[in-house]
Design a protein that fits this description.
With 63 residues, the chain is mostly beta strands. The chain has one domain (1-63). It is built from no helices and 4 strands. It has a 4-stranded antiparallel sheet, with no helix packed on it. The radius of gyration is 15 Å and the shape is flat. The mean pLDDT is 82.
């Protein structure tokens, strides 16, 4: 097993989890996790589906 170096720290953010989609091929049901600042700015979102995970980090210039 390879060892992984990781730095971790506790930070205050808001995490939301929603179930999205209608269950069709075009709009499958998935779970979306989003992280927000305490001021309400979106930091990142991760879409968890049946086959993959798609993570998007928000650009610090976006509102």
């Amino acid at each position: 097993m390879n060892s992984v170096r990781m730095k971790a720290e506790v930070v205050q953010v808001i995490r939301t989890e929603t179930v999205e989609g209608t269950g069709t091929k075009e709009s499958p049901i998935c779970r979306m996790t989003r992280y927000w600042t305490l001021e309400g700015k979106l930091l990142s979102e991760a879409l968890y589906g049946v086959e993959n995970v798609n993570v998007r980090l928000k650009n610090s210039n976006q509102k």
